[in-house]
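Please produce the structure of this protein holding flavin-adenine dinucleotide.
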Amino acid sequence: MASHEVAVIGQEARCSDVLSVRFERPAGYTFAAGQYLALTLRTAQGRETKPFSHSSGTGDPHLEVTTRLSGSTFKAALSALEPGDRVSIAGPAGRLTIPADERRVAFLVGGVGITPVISMLRSRDSATAPETVLFYGNREPSCIPFADEIAALAGERLSVVHVVEEAPEEWRGERGFITPRIVRGRLDPSDGWLFVVAGPPVMVSAMEAVLDALAVPASRAMIERFGPPA
Ligand SMILES: Cc1cc2nc3c(=O)[nH]c(=O)nc-3n(C[C@H](O)[C@H](O)[C@H](O)COP(=O)(O)OP(=O)(O)OC[C@H]3O[C@@H](n4cnc5c(N)ncnc54)[C@H](O)[C@@H]3O)c2cc1C
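Below is the modeled complex.
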């Protein structure tokens, strides 16, 4: 992986504790939607490096990563970055890329697990893109990262199923967690769908159980776990 020193362009608060940070895109830096980069920051503990999926589209002029601020030293340093600060990135890496000949793709993601998916959605050509269903789990409707952008992208080839854990009475979407019932209500899993799962380890383990219950073979699932198994 090539390593680059790049300048911070700016930050965008997505909702409550979810933050996007944009960096200069080095000349000649190319990546496939779904891949990640390794970001190195100077933190209170010295130099720390963590992987982050690109949340920017492949054609965007900048690079973007998006994360949930946790209180860790790394996230404290990330949220303190200001335009012009320099950081080190290395990338791209990873194999979470949708083969060009897939015709049906179902995403099962929660919270910041949306990052590789928003990159894919931002990068695709809506005329030739596979038929896509995004099952998107979040704790509360008031903090669904990229909700407006996803709503704007939704249409003939992209449908979105929001599943919210703590829903107010007026919530019209699904409640609780993504379950086999919710998935089966929208598609027939045996009908050529490629299932893509991404997110924190707890979320990924829960989605693996959903895939098992749906009898999805390993060959029809792509999984990106944002850390060691839960
Ligand atoms: C391929 C890949 C892609 C990834 N893509 C993304 C992505 O797009 N977005 C993303 O957010 N993450 C992504 N990750 C995970 C990311 O690399 C980090 O591991 C993750 O964000 C947690 O880092 P952290 O610094 O918050 O927590 P860690 O330091 O790893 O600690 C784990 C947890 O401990 C708690 N904690 C730690 N320190 C403190 C403290 N001082 N005070 C209070 N609580 C604390 C926090 O709750 C934290 O969540 C990816 C990982 C991989 C492997």
